[in-house]
Specification:
The chain is 27% helix and 17% strand. By secondary structure, it is of the alpha/beta class. The protein has a five-stranded mixed beta sheet with strand order 2-1-3-4-5. α4 links the parallel β4 and β5. The relative contact order is 0.17.
Amino acid sequence: MKRKNVISWDEYFMGMAHLSALRSKDPSTQVGAVIVSSSNKIVSIGYNGLPKGCSDDEYPWDREGSTLETKYVYVVHAELNAILNSPMPVNDCKIYVSLFPCNECAKAIIQSGIKEIVYEDDKYADTDHVKASKRMLNSAGVALRQLPHKVSVVLKID
């Protein structure tokens, strides 16, 4: 008899997003994203980090200070990394992301043709960046779906 307590596709892909986030060097916020085709095939994965060729040890990871002393002007977000890393077009795909996309990522998601965002955390919902993001995504007809519960990944390394 087959196993009955199998995780759902949503749990599987969000778990992959969390696993990807573990690659982030950001000490305060680790975000992962997984782009999935309509046939439930993983197309691309990304996490928040510095652009290729930029050393994690030479750039700031601070959240406060002057603009050039913070991470914000240097870090590529998980969603954009997943889009840029994709070996194929991502139009008509879904993106699973552990944190709701900012306005800059929303623009990339819309332009790339992704049709649905499945997200877990929306802790910045009250910020102008996320309000702008939701406004653009709604205008562009991108479906937004928050998972009803958190997905946890258990990683055992021997």
